[in-house]
Amino acid sequence: MVEIKPILKTILAYAVLIYFYYILQTAFFPKFSLAGVSPNVLVILVSTIGFAKGANQGMTVGMVCGIILDIFASGYFGMYALILVIIGFLNGTFRQFFFGDDMKLPLLLIGSSDLIYGGLIYIFTYIGRGRLDFPFYFMNLMMPEAVYTILVSLLLYFPIVQMDEWLKKSEKRRERKLV
User: Over 70: is that where the pLDDT of 175 sits?
Assistant: First the structure.
């Protein structure tokens, strides 16, 4: 029988993370933009959840983060949700290679995810307005944002991994009590 308490604990932990990372992305980091770009903190969250917990949870967190962005920041409803679901799925395919302490793969995936995010934003918004100068967009917006996001992920990656470890320990304690 499925027990509700661990599921609610996981949902609450993800809700707190989503809220905290959304506030960082929309209220904190825009004040510290470099070269006109801010890090994409929600991409860090979705990517990390995706490759730490798998495609299903990555897509779920991506959908929630995307809907929040669509409600508060988008002219096209569903665009951010679709992009972040894709990122959650793609990162979830790397779950079997996840090791919490090794930073090489997470940094590579977060940087790649941010570039995918920027490329899809370009396709959905800029091409529709007739702006076809992709090399300019890539060098002046996508690359600086990806580098900034990778640097910030060095700080924001470990709280997500620690939350994941806390949830695993909590689940193991619950299982020991049942046996």
Answer: no
